[in-house]
């Protein structure tokens, strides 16, 4: 039996048990019963299933009435920091222990107009406010695709004003009740930056001491390598650099080089 053989609901419970044992170091039936509102009998079945799947079974402590992971515990899957924090934050107050994030609001009318133009392969006229110039001039674009940088949704489109493929934030497009569209006058030029793949070579910042660099390598999982690498589209490399805060003052990491790969 493997995880893939399980039904979705049980697979979610098994993964929860695995993450409890990985990050808390312990788990019992009540953990899964309270999380998923299941019976004691079903929780017992889930534990037996987990024990049959793991190659590093936990040890049951009769006094604590809980399973404890061993020093050689190997998780079935990885978990992101949000999932780990949720497992560890067992004493949340009304304000919580996680900082609130800004909510960048998109207008659904704007997004749906862009989407319809994209699917129909039509140009659309927008009024876009540039944060560089502050200008909000009307312009024609031809939407091609949406992409997400981890914080905001962007629209990649052909700009007739700039005669190039560019990225637009829908939140900076002025809402209009009826957007003017038109047929594309000709096929769009090939988007070389989107279809080109690059590898970013990232290393501990050169200003760090040897001891600090060792900690950074451990923090970001360098293993024995001198660099970690990120493969992405050339058009998205800018967002990787910004999201990872590479080359900023007091940064822990810096971009060493960008390697062009075969598309």
TrEMBL record:
PROSITE patterns the record matches: WYL
Q: Which residues form the WYL domain?
A: 110-173
Give the top-rank taxon of the lineage listed in the UniProt record for this protein: Bacteria
Ranges where the DNA-binding transcriptional repressor CapW C-terminal dimerisation domain occurs: 197-252
Which residue ranges does the record assign to the DNA-binding transcriptional repressor CapW winged helix-turn-helix domain? 10-78
Q: Name one Pfam family in it.
A: WYL
Q: What is this protein called?
A: WYL domain-containing protein
Recorded source organism is Allosediminivita pacifica
């Amino acid at each position: 039996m493997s995880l893939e053989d399980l039904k979705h609901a049980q697979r979610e419970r098994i993964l929860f048990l695995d993450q409890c044992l990985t990050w808390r170091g312990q788990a019992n039936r009540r953990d899964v019963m309270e999380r998923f509102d299941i019976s004691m009998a079903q929780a017992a079945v889930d534990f037996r299933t987990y024990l049959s799947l793991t190659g590093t079974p936990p040890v049951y402590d009769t006094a604590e009435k809980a399973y404890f992971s061993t020093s050689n515990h190997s998780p079935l899957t990885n978990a992101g920091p949000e999932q780990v924090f949720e497992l560890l934050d067992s004493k949340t107050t009304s304000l919580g222990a996680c900082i609130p994030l800004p909510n960048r609001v998109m207008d659904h009318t704007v997004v749906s107009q862009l989407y319809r133009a994209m699917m129909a392969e039509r140009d659309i006229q927008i009024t876009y406010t540039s944060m560089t110039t502050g200008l909000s001039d009307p312009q024609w674009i031809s939407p091609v695709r949406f992409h997400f940088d981890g914080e905001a949704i962007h629209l990649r489109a052909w700009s007739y004003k700039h005669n190039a493929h560019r990225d637009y934030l829908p939140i900076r497009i002025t809402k209009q009740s009826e957007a003017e569209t038109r047929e594309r006058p000709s096929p769009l030029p090939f988007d070389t930056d989107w279809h080109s793949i690059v590898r970013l070579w990232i290393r501990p910042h050169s200003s760090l001491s040897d001891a600090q660099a060792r900690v950074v390598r451990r923090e970001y999982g360098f293993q024995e390598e001198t660099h970690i690498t990120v493969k992405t589209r050339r058009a998205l490399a800018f967002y990787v650099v910004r999201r990872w805060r590479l080359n900023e003052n007091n940064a822990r990491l810096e971009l060493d080089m960008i390697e062009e790969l075969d598309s």
